[in-house]
Specification:
The chain has 327 residues and is α/β, with parallel strands linked by helices. The chain has 11 helices and 12 strands. The strands form 2 sheets. Strands 2-1-3-4-5-11 form a 6-stranded parallel β-sheet, sandwiched between helices. Helix 6 links the parallel strand 6 and strand 7. The termini are far apart. The relative contact order is 0.13.
Length: 327
């Protein structure tokens, strides 16, 4: 072999070795077959303990995906403005996909559309179907509302007046749960007095209940639509000395809610599966980023089933959910 050919061959080998080194060092998550790590984010709508379980799902997906890193973000004040600030920050970092639970879907549609022009966007927990989001992963909240309505009818078969409580009625999940409850209560003797909001302020959430118990002496049922509303209702009812007299129906699986169900102070709670929100959203976004959109159905909605937890099932469920929380 001539000297010229040997030099050319050596140069080719050096280029090949360099390319191999670049590929093997491209992913901080363990290395995929070429390509860099995809950065995905999961953005909640408040700081509730509910999201602790969703974080575990995100972490599980992150651990399973070698070429993905996941950032979990919680808005400090639970406002649309704070969610926009988080989205802008993530975009500035070059995020490859964002799963967000919009606080105010109607008024955040333009924000979601703007973000979707720059990166992949999923919604979770609360949908924004009029936006350009690629998919929604979460609860069928109308169906969940119907489940809650069934619990309400079981709790107060004689009928009577009830009050509903939630953080914001702008959120689509709140609107849909209310719709489902109204549908389930049609034709019954149960009357919804009103829906009281608290802007995710737990102190205000409890005071709303206390005010209701004073103003409406004939109220027989109290219903919390967001996770922290259950404990807020329970504590206000305890303070008023009306445990057992006023029936409580809640959503989600906060510790105080499950403890209240176990002791019989709360009739029942409709629980979601936030672990699956985190796990499925991250896995699906990673799949789409890899060029495979087959997991997104034509409806662009992936519903995670809800569960109804009453006194006879609460102990087993509590053990399961504590395991997900790492306890």
């Amino acid at each position: 072999m001539s000297l010229t050919k040997r030099i050319a061959l050596a140069g080719a080998c050096l280029l090949l070795a360099s390319a191999c080194n670049q590929n093997s060092g491209g992913s901080s998550g363990g290395g995929s077959s070429g390509g860099s790590t995809k950065k995905l984010a999961f953005v909640t709508n408040n700081a509730s303990d509910f999201w602790t379980i969703a974080r575990k799902g995100c972490e599980k997906a992150d651990a399973e995906l070698n070429d993905v890193s996941v950032e979990f973000r919680i808005p400090a004040d639970g406002t649309a403005a704070e969610q926009k600030r988080i989205a802008d920050d993530l975009l500035a970092k070059g995020i490859d996909g964002i799963a967000i639970s919009p606080v105010d879907p109607e008024n955040q549609t333009q924000l979601i559309n703007d973000v979707a022009k720059q990166t992949l966007v999923f919604t979770h927990d609360s949908d924004a179907p009029k936006s350009e989001r690629a998919c929604y992963v979460g609860t069928d909240n109308v169906a969940a509302g119907r489940e809650a309505g069934g619990l309400i009818k079981d709790a107060i078969p004689q009928g009577g007046k009830i009050m509903l409580f939630v953080g914001k009625t702008d959120a689509r999940n709140a609107q849909e749960r209310l719709q489902g409850i109204r549908e389930a209560l049609q034709g019954s003797n149960i009357q919804i007095i009103d829906v009281r909001t608290d802007d995710t302020d737990r102190v205000r959430a409890k005071s709303n209940v206390s005010d209701t118990l004073v103003k409406y002496q004939d109220v027989v049922g109290l219903v919390g639509l967001w996770s922290y509303n259950g404990p807020a209702i329970l504590n206000a009812v305890r303070d008023a000395g009306k445990v057992g007299q006023v029936k409580i129906v809640a959503f989600d699986e906060e510790d105080e809610t499950l403890a209240g169900v176990k002791e019989g102070a709360i009739y029942g709670t409709v629980v979601q599966q936030p672990y699956e929100f985190g796990y499925r959203a991250i896995k699906m976004m990673a799949q789409v980023q890899a060029g495979d959109k087959s997991a997104i159905p034509p409806s662009k909605q992936v519903f995670i089933p809800t569960l109804t937890i009453k006194r006879d099932s609460v102990e087993e469920f509590t053990k399961k959910v504590n395991g997900l929380r790492g306890r």
